[in-house]
Specification:
It contains 10 helices and 8 strands. With 266 residues, the protein is α/β, with parallel strands linked by helices. Helix 4 links the parallel strand 4 and strand 5. It is globular. Bound molecules: zinc ion.
């Protein structure tokens, strides 16, 4: 049986794979992928993502990743607002959030960039695609103080504890799982994926990173969500079609319909 798969978080504009994007999208389509949200990390990727949304498989998320907070400039929010308003298939703000993995020297700037982009998401009624590493207390503080947009948000590559998962679900967020869910030693992650309500679960690849177990050592590709769906079905004692169908419904709820978004952003 042919299933429909969706990837809520792929970096199709990453310089490592951008030249291959046309082939990757054709491969994705032929393997049953029915939707990909292409996420930006840096401002320079925004025009490439806009261009990629010409492919009917692709939706776009524009934003500035915390790794690249030094790229922040005074007019960034104005440029982001204009880009999102101009492009009906750019339907989310991402990838945004906090990352203290390499230390906290720019924590204040990261929190300001995160807060400001959240405010724009509320203004434009767009969902947010969230990155977080080693910063959960600050992450929830910012969400409490700034507030999530009504269209909610997605914890991309969720990999924290059940307690954090519960907090994220209580905040109204989706949890998105990718390649590492299939690693044999990922016991804590598998427990979270079995625990989360299926109507709050998404699949992703973080293409070109985080490949599933059987592709380890290679770049990931959007069709690798097949392995994540299979793992979710096993962990939850259900079928792959049941998982794929609900995850597609969740994906569509996040990205919406281009026409609807266009009106919402007017
Ligand atoms: Zn990412």
């Amino acid at each position: 049986m042919d299933l429909n798969y969706t990837d809520i978080h792929a970096h199709l504009a990453d310089p490592r794979i951008l030249p291959l994007a046309a082939d990757i999208l054709e491969e994705s389509r032929s393997r049953g992928v029915r939707g990909i949200l292409a996420n930006a990390a840096r401002v320079g990727e925004w025009p490439d993502i806009v261009r990629l949304t010409a492919n009917p498989l692709v939706y776009g998320a524009l934003g500035l990743h915390p790794f690249f907070v030094e790229e922040w400039y005074d007019g960034l929010i104005g440029d982001l607002r204009r880009a999102l308003r101009a492009e009906p298939r750019c339907v989310a703000i991402g990838e945004i959030g906090l990352d203290f993995y390499r230390g906290r020297t720019d924590a204040a700037r990261q929190m300001e960039a995160f807060t400001t982009q959240l405010a724009l998401a509320r203004e434009l009624n767009l969902p947010v695609i969230l990155h977080n590493r080693k910063a959960w207390p600050e992450f929830f503080d910012v969400l409490r103080q700034a507030g999530l947009p009504a269209r909610g948000g997605v914890c991309h590559h969720f990999s924290a504890s059940i307690e954090i998962a519960r907090q994220a679900l209580d905040a109204g967020l989706y949890l998105s799982f990718c390649g590492p869910l299939t690693y044999p030693n990922a016991r804590r992650l598998k427990a979270v994926a079995a625990y989360a309500p299926l109507d709050r679960v998404l699949t992703e690849t973080d293409t070109p990173d985080l490949p599933p177990e059987r592709y380890r050592g290679q770049e990931s590709r959007p069709f690798h969500v097949q392995d994540v769906v299979r793992e979710l079905a096993t962990l939850r004692g259900t079928t792959e079609p049941a998982v794929a169908q609900q995850v597609e419904t969740n994906f569509l709820a996040v990205v919406g319909d281009g026409v609807e978004w266009w009106r919402g952003k007017g």
